[in-house]
Amino acid sequence: MKIEYIGRRMAELEKRIIGDWVELREKANDLHSLLDSLALYPPEIRDAGERLRHSVEQGIVEFKRTVLSPVLVALETARYKSLAAEEMGTQEKSLTQLLLVIFLQRLLTAELLPLSRPQEQKRSFGVEDLQVNVILSDINARVKTAPGLRAHPAVKNILMQVNVYNKENQKMRELLPTIKPEMRASFLSNFTKTFEEIIASIRRHYATILQEEAAAAQKSREEGFSLSLLPLKELTPLLVNQAKEVARMRSTLAHARDEKYKTREVLVRMYDQRHEVLRMIEDEAKAFRKICQQTMQYDLDGCVHQIANAFRDEIVGILERQGKKETTA
Fold first, then answer.
1. I need a surface site. Which of 24, 170, 205, 300 has the fewest CB within 10 A?
2. 114: phi > 0 → left, psi -120 to 50 → alpha, else beta; which?
3. How far is the C-alpha of 29 from the C-alpha of 46, rounded, in Å?
4. pLDDT band for position 98 (50/70/90)?
């Protein structure tokens, strides 16, 4: 009779686990449906973001370990005493936050959510309208900050042309009083043409400096680390398995909390099966390393660290935006 009772309870638990997972899986491809299904309140969404933000050493992998740790400690306690419903509810909520983060990560790897991209730094040089004094002021400021810039060919040419401009201007002022009135128009026209050539040269060389600066910035962005350059889809099956295992734990806690009596056996069994979910998290770090190897990254440890932190930053941004939306809704 007792075996039959236990068997019936386990069948009910399994039915709940499967039902909860099917519901989550059906809504997992849409962010808003997912949030509705997980039923997290705005403060809980923001709290998940803050907890993830504080995972500064190993990014998203650290976050997953950190969230699981108190859950497993609580489950281990079930060996010796029954867990209070409040404690089970607290750990269930932590697993829900973890589940949300895993699903968001999966949406990113499956390209169902766009990765954030650095804003293009578009700059209209407009040098053809700049006054010489504005150009010279910027050049002087640059040289003051980086004295070595004075040796740059374009900078040297600008300073030389400014010197020529000043000399020609001084020469014009000295000669102008000696020029006959009927010759002044022609005299000024010649100097105006000279000044225009000097100013055009200054603007051309200033444009060269700005173009080199923009090209260097673009190259830096292209060579910089970006999740969008990596084959992230390879991570999707692993993340689905992570989500399924965490969902199983969450459903089991919810079932135990609802049942209230004689649930220690279920919780202890879940603790004894902890190695599966822990292995999946460690497999994630290994998967990051494999991606780094595929993309010919020289510093594998550094690359793994960058991927973990990049996922952290992406998901923190999503959680912050959703937390704000939910607050104003």
1. 170
2. beta
3. 21
4. very high
